[in-house]
Amino acid sequence: MWAYSCCRAQYKINIEALYTTDFMTKLVRRQRDRLEDILRNLTPERIKVGDAMVWCLDHADNSQEIVECIAESLSILQTPVPKKVIEW
Length: 88
Description:
Elements: E1 2-6, E2 9-13, H1 15-18, H2 29-40, H3 46-58, H4 63-75, H5 81-87
Antiparallel strand pairs: 1-2
Helix pairs in contact: 2-4
C-alpha cells in the first residue's frame, strides 16, 4: 500500500492492484495497427524514436500488450539486426 497527499486530500493506492490484468486494458485493433506501423517504420532518427516513445507513454495503460507487440517484432527473423537494435 502506498499513500500520498495532494491538495489536502489523502489517497491510498494498492500498488499490487495496479499490476493485475484486471486493471490493464487491451489495445483496440486500430491502436494495435498503429503501433505495428510505428515499429515497422522506425528509423534511428530522433523524431521517429521520440514519436514512438510518446505513443507508448500515451498508451501506458496497455503496457503489457505494447511489450508483447515489441517482443513479437523483435522475434521476426526477416527483420535486419540494425532495425532490431533501433526497436530495442
